[in-house]
Write a structure and sequence with these properties.
About 40% of the residues lie in helices and about 15% in strands. The chain has 13 helices and 9 strands. Helix 6 crosses helix 9 and helix 7 packs parallel to helix 12.
Amino acid sequence: MVSKEKIEVLRQKIDEADAIVVGGASGMSAASGFVFYYQEDDVFRRMAGGLAKKYDRHNMFDLFYESRMTAGEHWTINLRTIRYIYECETGGTYKDLAELLKGKDYYIATTNQDAQFYRVFPAGRITRIQGDWRYWQCSRPCHDEIYYNKEKVFELSDKIVGDALPDELIPRCPHCGKELAPWVRSYTFLEGEYYQREMKRYLDFLRANSRRKVLFLELGVGMMTPMFIKEPFMNMTYQFPNAFYATVNPQHAIIPKEIARKSLAISNDIAVTLKQLLGKSTTGIKAFNAKEAFNPSRVY
């Protein structure tokens, strides 16, 4: 449980803010129970099938980067992950955040690729810094286009044989014939028209509110890619005269001394914190245990 004093401070900052910039990362989804990326839960076992034992892997992160897998096996993991993203329920943290931001002027920058924010927030208020599993791109990439993949994902996932998609069914670019790839952060990630349009919208919101009372609300941002949300939020809090920075993270709620007087760190579970901010019961919530979930040898 978060102390009453910290909850009151954060609630006051939310109420007083002229604008709220939310930085949402994997901790938001983890706090909603989507932990197959990090640990060997039932969802991971179902999606990995025999590949977990074959390659001695115990979470989806490790399978994503398993170099010994064939192309068909990689596509199996991708297809099952994307199908789950389409079929899973909306996380409670996202529903609670939407209720908390109701009536406020806000914008969301996220490194999440699971599209959970799109379940409860309008697309025009979201920027996807690291892409979105629901889209494919050319792996080269030879052109500036991304492809919504729901229909094809459901079709192909039903044609997986023995934990491998047959080679002749691997999706290919309609222009150059190279394999398609998920539109998510990688060496070939396409930062084209769609990406630039969303980044411009985000930057326009920041510029319009740089002199106003703005709250940077960081939720579940770790140290795997701090350059996308955590470090910019800290820097803008330092530079914007009326900004305030609040970070909620059971593992990486970090505040530099330079902005200590205009910041708040809550080293607690995000799901519990949002319930407390809304004045809702936290009974029955199993707090996210970072030590239990994360592999200490990997940066998240």
